[in-house]
Amino acid sequence: MIEIGFPDEPASEASILAQELAQTLRLEGVADAALSLVKERPEAMDLGTALVIAELAVGSGVIIQHLFELWYRTRCTLRITTPRGQFVLRASEVDLGKLREVLEGAFK
Question: How far is CA 26 from CA 30, 41, 85, in A?
Fold first, then answer.
């Protein structure tokens, strides 16, 4: 399982980014049951500001590609939680190599 959040974005924008990433992954073949939006602040009035991917039906390269494309458009900080721990990649630190390092092997 991995969780992807956008910690430096306002809740409304983080929710939009999480929903957008979820929709893109659905189009790539990830089942609805494997994706869920979660609220990082229970009192918030949003649908969820982070995306949880419970199982992977496509290669990790697909997530890396779409996450990089999302970051490239928005230049946002990413918080990625995997079984190996939590990684916060500041907007200036994100590149394909770092995303591969963090995400590859997350579902093994």
Answer: 5, 25, 25
Report pLDDT digits (tens) over 26-45. Answer: 998 888 889 999 987 777 67
The C-alpha atoms of residue 26 and residue 23 are separated, in whole angstroms, by 5
Q: What is the pTM of this model?
A: 0.88
Neighbouring CB atoms inside 10 A of 12's CB total 11
Q: Could you tell me if 51 and 22 are in contact, meaning their C-beta atoms sit under 8 angstroms apart?
A: yes
For residues 1 and 10, is the Cβ–Cβ distance under 8 A?
no
Q: How far apart are the first and last CA of the chain?
A: 10
- Write down the residue that tokens 């990684």 correspond to: 87
